[in-house]
Structures are given as C-alpha cells and as structure tokens.
Specification:
Structural class: alpha+beta
Strand content: 15-25%
Helix content: 25-40%
Strand order of the largest sheet: 1-5-4-3-2
Largest sheet: 5 strands, antiparallel
Oligomer: single chain
Number of strands: 5
Number of helices: 6
Order of helices and strands: HHEHEHHEEEH
Shape: globular
Radius of gyration: 19 Å
Distance between the termini: 33 Å
Length: about 170
Amino acid sequence: MHTVPEFRGHGFAPQLIEWVERDQQEQGVALSLLYSDIAPAYYERLGYFVCPGWEAEIVTASAFATARELLQSSPKVELEKISRFEKRETLARIYDNHHASMEISIDRDETYWDFLLAKQPEDEFYLLNESSGNPAAYVRLQADSERLLIRDFALARNDVAGWNGLLARIV
C-alpha cells in the first residue's frame, strides 16, 4: 500500500484496508499480513499487531570501509558493487530463490522492485559472487560515518550454511 503525498490524510488507506480485510474474510482467509516501512503505530491503530523485523547494524568510526574490507577478505566470495537498476533481474531472481521455500514472504513484482530500488538512493548494492562468478547473494547497505545498516539481502540458495557465511562476511 502506498498513498502519494497529495492524497494522504483523506482516509483512503483505512478504507482500502477495511475493504480488503472484509473481502478476504468473506473468502475464508483467516490471516492477513501488512508489510510497511512507515511508523507501525499507524497500523496498530487499525488493529494490526507489530511483528519484529530483521535488521543488522555495524557501528564503527569508519563502518562502510570496514565492512567492505571484511566482505572482500573472503577468498571464496568476491564482492561486486553493482548498479541496482542494471542488475534488477539478478536481484529479483536471487530474492525469489531465497524466499521460495518460506511459508510467508513478500512477493515483489516489477512495479514493487522499481519502487524499492528507487527508494533511498544513497544505499549501495553488492553481489557476493562465488569463485565461479555465479552470484551467491546480494546485500543492500546504507552507511554513514558511524554505522552500517544491512537493509536487504538474499541468498541464491537458501541454506543455513550460506546464511551463516553471508553474515560472517558482513559482520
């Protein structure tokens, strides 16, 4: 759900949520999930419960340089800074593979990918490539002089060893 700024404050979002909830209940749906990047209190007022989100943070005087050094220190994985728009299909493929076995995940169609990639233009995107050159993962990072946030990531193959390896290289 996204309301363009000039139409905010007119009650459109609560009306749409109410209509969707009612329609889905009539079809027998018992659970709904709303993913949002705005203040959760807004949706709590509409009856939603807040679920924790995943975020990792590295705090250091030169966080971004340190993170790059850590990522590049692995002999098995090469870090490649990419253009998010040029590699959108690769990012989407890795994301889809990562989430394919999950019971609940966010479906990202082309429009949603365009929105996500345009949002927060200061973020940097990296592919973590195997020695064969095949992408093993991607990571989206946001940094300032004191901290590094992992904003998004996905593994080409969703497995515990890959997950632990990605985290070890980032933190």
